[in-house]
Amino acid sequence: MGTILYTSPFGKIFVSANEGKITELYFKGGVTTPSSLGETKIKTAEDSAVLEKVKHELDLYFAGKLKEFTVPVNPAGTAFRKTVWQALQAIPYGKTVSYKELAVQIGNPKAVRAVGGANHNNPISIIIPCHRVIGANGKLVGYGGGLGVKEFLLKLESV
User: What is the pLDDT of residues 122-144, one digit of tens each?
Assistant: First the structure.
């Protein structure tokens, strides 16, 4: 497993990889930054390669030149959360959906709160675009990196 510290336009981001797949992307000092995540040396060539690729893709994304990430991901979570995270990846760049719409999309319209919980526990922010989920009233609600970061990402994608 390897971890890098990436400098984004709004601060530092920890990105971890294991077996050639991204496993975590957290905002340093963000609401959901796990205390166990820290800078480590990259231990395998496979992890080194995927972390270099994610740095390149993040650079392109923040420059407004990348609309869909291609790095492989492997988020740890329950089957339900993985279903939600897969649905998040289907939200097009520059679009938003409500928690209720997302619950309907996964075939469980009564699971709005559970969808919110899965969204909150997304371990690979930005790449799995939980920032594209908003309240039913169209307002920005909750984000692990803070609402300012969520607003920044949505503005970046509205270009």
Answer: 999 999 999 999 988 787 877 76
Question: Is 84 found in the same domain as 58?
Answer: no
Q: Would residue 130 show up in a list of annotated catalytic residues for this protein?
A: yes
- Identify the domain containing residue 52 by its residue range: 2-62
| Catalytic position from the list 4, 115, 118, 130 | 130
Dump pLDDT digits (tens) for 13-36.
Answer: 999 999 999 999 988 765 444 444
Which tokens belong to 126? 């930005």
> Residue 54 and residue 57: Cα distance in Å, rounded?
5
Region of 107 (left: φ > 0; alpha: ψ -120 to 50; beta: rest) is left
Which of the listed residues 13, 29, 62 is the one where a domain comes to its end? 62
Looking at residue 132, which CATH number applies to its domain?
1.10.10.10
Quote the distance between the C-alpha of residue 60 and its chain's center: 16
CA-CA-CA-CA torsion for 151, 158, 57, 105, nearest 10 degrees? 80
10 found inside a domain: yes
**Secondary structure (3-state) at 71:** coil
Give the chain's radius of gyration (CA, Å): 15
Structural domains of the chain, count = 2
